[in-house]
Amino acid sequence: MNLVQLNPPSLDPKTAPPFPAAAKIDLRDTQLRRNVARATDTIQRKRAALVEEKKDWQALRDAGAAIRREALRNLDGYLLQFEERFQAAGGTVHWAANAADANRVVLDILRENDAREVIKIKSMTTAEIGLNEYLAHHNVTAHETDLAELILQLGGDQPSHIVVPALHKNRQQVREIFARSMGLPDLSDDPEALTAAARQYLREKFLRVKTAICGANFLIAETGGVTIVESEGNGRMCLTLPETLIAIVGIEKVIPRFADLEVLLQTLPRSATGERMNPYNSIWSGVIPGDGPKNMHVVLLDNGRTRVLRDAIGRQTLQCIRCGACQNACPVYRQTGGHAYGSVYAGPIGAILTPQLEDMRYAQSLPYASSLCGACYEVCPVKINIPEVLVHLRARVVDRGRRKLASLFDQERAGMMMMAAIFANRRRYEAAQRLARTAQRAVRHGDAWYHWLPGMAGRWTETRDLAPLPKETFREWWQQRGRS
Amino acid sequence: MRIALFITCYNDTLFPRTGQSVVRVLERLGHTVEFPLEQTCCGQMHFNTGYAREAYPLAKRFVEIFADAEAVCIPSSSCVAMIREYYPALARENEDAGMAAAVGSLLPRVFEFSELLVDALGVTDVGAYFPHRVTYHASCHGLRSLHLGDKPLRLLRAVRGLELVPLDGLEQCCGFGGTFAVKNADVSAAMLTEKTRAVLNTRAEVCTACDNSCLMHMQGMLHRQFADVRTLHLAEVLANTEVVPA
Amino acid sequence: MVAAARAIVNGPRISSRERVLERISKANSRAAGLPESIPRGYDRGSTQSAEETVALFESRLQDYDARVFRIRRDAIAAKAAEILQAGHRQRVVVPDGLPKAWRADGLAWIPDGELSIDVLNAVDGVMTGARLGVAVSGSIVLQHGPAEGRRVLTLLPDYHLCVIEAAQVVETLPEAFARLDPARPVTFFSGPSATADIEMTRIKGVHGPRFLDVLLVED
Question: Does residue A38 lie within any of the structural domains?
């Protein structure tokens, strides 16, 4: 019995279990771990080969980081410029301070157009605001059209990776889901056949449904442009065929100039899928007469992003272009997959973005879900120093805790305070060393290793032995040497 | 050269032989080693766990103690990374201009052990003899923060009698991560299992690295499994000669 | 009573737009850091000759299983007809502005005059020109001018025959962006649509044309 599959995991940081508890369960799903390892290894290998080939890769990262920093530094100016250009081209811009605002705006547009169903392109932003659930509650059906999102929607599951959201599913599971929902009992589990079934199933919706909802990879201030980067073609379907298109876009997605894409469209595909370029990129502004939707809406979403912007160290988190390379590189994510993070955004970027969006009130375990190995920073195409932000957020979690009475009784805090006092001067430090050795003599004989320890230290000995304290510290040896 | 040794709190208490080996190697090369006894800890454990406030006085203390050193040698890449990457920020955030200046002056004189040998002293052959099959694990801080590159491997290749075998996934984290090993013990163990598998597959007798934190972690599982592999800090491999057995 | 209390607490209604802009302004006044110029040290020009660039373009297209036919300008119509007939593609939609000289007799060319989705769904293919090609990534870029047509033309049909001149092919993406018109829509095509969502097995041709033939025109 696999607990993970019984209940769709909660990706709401307000209710999800802390990372260690969720990870404990997911670690026992060996199929998940194999799938995650294979998927991340594959993309990493392809990415590495392309980075090796691209001699100006570091220069592209430098430029990409600077472009994203500049956009954030003048965020209001660029958003206003985008709004003006987009509306001049016949589109409408709405602003949403939070998820409730955004959902309401979308519903209002749907009601204006009498839309009872919509087709959707994968958008983590819409998952973040819980749009599908909100629409369902108001009797609007949202059909996901990305293959992975389709698999998850039909299977009642949640995404576990930014770029390959259903990587935790194998072909038999997909076959079973499609056979059941599409009424195809004889469907084989060959990926070609499964994809063909999805193509057919979705085509009917593309041709019929008049309203589509999407996210966007970038908004271009200079031209009022919307940019959609994709592989499957469902994006192009949704942005071309319907009469009404609503794009819900985080405010941090804006970039200053059209030409800035010459950098980001080199680094994004190589980082996300290990390709020199993904199959389709669409860039347009507003309404194009005779070509595409007549009603074009962009909803600019804050929902905590301005909070992230306030933090001098944390704000670099908003540079993210959602490539997923950090997830693929992360040795922690490799073992657990995305669900354990209890958030729409998983892996290293999730560990820093989600707690900040929640003003550090929730997802406090996420900044600790890292060994600080730095592999994420190494691959980030816009040079977000994720380890620096992780450590900074740990300090914010600790500082929040300091103000609470309960912290007085916290084992970790007590230990840290004690160690700080011990390290503060030589005499105390040497005394502590001697005391530890004395204590050890009471429980240990000779060189025997520890197989069990009490309290927090016991978490080490669950799976690892620990050598006993040596008979002599380095400084004792050094001082002895001096005398002889 | 007069080289001040910062042994690090955990090497001092748990791995004194690493320190002894550093002394042996440097004296063998004709240098003088000093050991300021006031030293305790660089503050990394506190800083990385979110106790930046408590790390600041420890960092300040370090900078004061080593202010006049000609060179500081540290056999721990994670501690060097802490000093290089976060001491300037700690001084800045605490508006401590004096410390900021002192850090700026000290940083160029701080070296991880393999950096000291290869970059500062210009040697790769330290006259070592170690007739064993050895594999090398690249600690994350040494790899990604210090950019040690192949310095440790060049030092190992110059050791007489040593059979060096490559480690699959040598750049993958062993799962220690400081308090991570305890706060996320399950994931830490899962990561360690992969690392252990890679080490066992090399059929090496010894696994070495520039950080005893990683090695302590790796040895913990190897020992639990009664594996025929032991871990040894790079300094201890390099200290070995025909005369003094390992 | 609750509503009255809420009105007192919240004060006059401030729009979401104003609220968001104010938050951004406040956040940036505290934490934005110093302005810096964008370092553009990446490759912005080409490193290869025109022939090498075209050869690279052809090679990358072939990696995508596209067929590439190098022809002279006066052979476009004949070659197009030959390929379409060999593939049993009789009913081919063309953009209004596609040069008549490219359309040989004997095929049922369907000029696009706001054709319905149902009609487009049933044709055998589409033939267009292009704005430019990018060699490094084997990308064909359309800006949907008269010879390229509206975007749905290269979306619904399963087959795309694209005419592109060697002189339109650049090596790198920065060169492409220097030539693109920022005021027009852009669509990049780099291989057929694909997914790796099922067990990381790459499947080609999900939505959008699965088959691409390219007439690479040299003088």
Answer: no
Q: Which ipTM did the prediction report?
A: 0.97
Low-confidence ranges of chain A (pLDDT < 70): 1-8, 483-484
Q: Quick count: other Cβ atoms within 10 Å of Cβ B109?
A: 16
pLDDT at A2: 39
pLDDT band of C13, cuts 50, 70, 90: confident
pLDDT score, position A411: 82
**Interchain contact B/C (3 or more Cβ pairs less than 8 Å):** no
In angstroms, the Cα distances linking C15 to A101, A177, A384 are 11, 44, 32
| Whether the domain at B2-120 and the domain at B133-238 fall into the same CATH topology | yes
Q: For residues A380 and A371, give the distance between their C-alpha atoms in angstroms, rounded to a whole number.
A: 17
CA dihedral angle for residue A67, residue A68, residue A70, residue A71, rounded to 10 degrees: 120
C-alpha to C-alpha distance for B117 and B238, rounded to whole angstroms:
11
* pLDDT range class, residue C194, cuts 50, 70, 90: confident
User: Which chain C residues are closer than 8 Å to A222 by Cβ?
Assistant: 182
Residue A432 lies in a domain: yes
Give the model's pLDDT for residue A412.
86
Cβ A240–C189 below 8 Å, yes or no? no
CA distance A49 to chain B (A): 16
**Quick one: pLDDT at residue A158?**
85
What one-character-per-residue DSSP string does A372-435 give? ---HHHHH-TT---HHHHHHHHHHHHHHHHHTSGGGGG-HHHHHHHHHHHHHT-HHHHHHHHHH
Residue span of the structural domain in which A469 resides: 427-483
A431 assigned to some structural domain: yes
The CA distance from C160 to C109, in Å, is 14
In this prediction, residue C10 has a pLDDT band, given cuts at 50, 70 and 90, of low
Instruction: Assess if residue A454 is contained within a domain.
Output: yes
Q: Cβ B58–A423 below 8 Å, yes or no? A: yes
| C77-106 tens-digit pLDDT | 999 999 999 999 999 999 999 999 999 998
Count of structural domains within chain A:
1
A63·C20 Cβ contact <8 A:
no
A432: closest CA of chain C, how far (Å): 42
Check residue A3 and give its pLDDT. 38
Name the B residues in 151-210 with CB < 8 Å from any A CB. Answer: 171-173, 175-192
**Per-residue pLDDT at C3 exceeds 70:** no
Residues 382-401 of A with CB under 8 A from B: 388, 391, 393-399
**CA-based nearest residue in chain A for residue C175:** A262
Cα B10 versus chain centre, distance: 11
For residue C152, what is the nearest residue in chain A, using CA coordinates?
A240
Decide if pLDDT at C204 tops 90.
Answer: no
Span C149-159, average pLDDT: 96
Place of tokens 């694909």: C194
Q: Which of A370, A399, A459 sits opposite B177 (nearest CB)?
A: A370
Within 32-61 of B, beta carbons closer than 8 Å to A belong to 35, 37-41, 43, 45-54, 57-58, 61
- Report residues of chain B scoring pLDDT below 70: 244-246
For the domain bounded by B133-238, which CATH number is listed? 3.40.50
Residue of chain A whose alpha carbon sits nearest to that of B20: A474
- Chains with ≥3 CB–CB distances under 8 Å to C: A
pTM: predicted TM-score of the whole model, two decimal places? 0.95
| Per-residue pLDDT, A6 | 41
* Tokens representing residue A13 in the block: 């940081």
The residue ranges of every structural domain in chain B are 2-120, 133-238
Domain formed by B2-120, architecture: 3-Layer(aba) Sandwich (3.40)
Question: CA B133 to CA B203: how far, in whole Å?
Answer: 8
The answer to whether the CB atoms of A237 and C207 lie below 8 A apart is yes
Q: What is the DSSP letter of A241?
A: S
Contact C185, A227 (CB under 8 A): no
